[in-house]
Amino acid sequence: MYYILPTARCLGVEFWGNQFELANLYDQLNKFFIVRDDLKHKNGGGIEKILSSFLYEIRHAYQHDRLIKEDKFGCKISWVHLFFSIGAIKYNMSIVDHNKQDKALILNLEYWTEKCLDSHGLKIANLLKPYVDDAIFMGNENIYQYMRMINFEFFSLKGGKRGLKKLHELMATAVYGTVEYEAYKNQLIVDAELNNCKTYELEINDDNLEIYNQKW
Q: How far is CA 113 from the centre of its chain?
């Protein structure tokens, strides 16, 4: 069975397992990567983009392209990406056929995520566990832009317990109806008008390698 560990600098988690375990996890998760046009999320693929990047890391882990520790292989996933990926999986589970094994998959993923949060202390865990549940509004037509922006801001804090304590405030942007949610929605509308495109077509300029190239 695969397992998940928190990273030392609090930026996210590490998925670990042998090749079979991670490949099996990939196959199970891939079931919820929907490509049928009639089932696609209305935002032009935001949910799919979130899951695609998540699956990409898991696949490269079992292909031995990421972390290696004796007979185990792994990859790193930021807290923000993990929260949104869990939400994306559950969103798509609601519109495709699934069985008890699929339910066990998401419960196991939630279990390991909450276990990692608990390792950072009760206060932080209690603030962030709602984002493992249903606090993120996955019906947001700009869900991918929200994830990218929040992830960028989180990495800008450069990790540590201080950054993790601030993550709750950043994640509030993903909760429907909050001041933060509405403020970013309005900013996207302004940016879309300036670029003559739909809000969910906006590209997020978060390719600052100095921010992402840091100890996790």
A: 11
